[in-house]
Amino acid sequence: MARREDGFTLIELLSAMIVLGIVLASFSMVLSSAIRHSGEVEEQGNLQSEARSAIASVSQDLRQVFDGDGDLSTTPIESIGPTQITFLSPDRAQPFHLRRLSYRLSAGEFQRAIAVSTDTDGAPWSIPALGSYQKLVGSLVNGTVFTFQKADGTTATTPLDVKTIGIVLTVATATSPSRQYTYQTRATVRGES
Question: Where are the domains of the chain?
Answer without folding.
Answer: 41-188
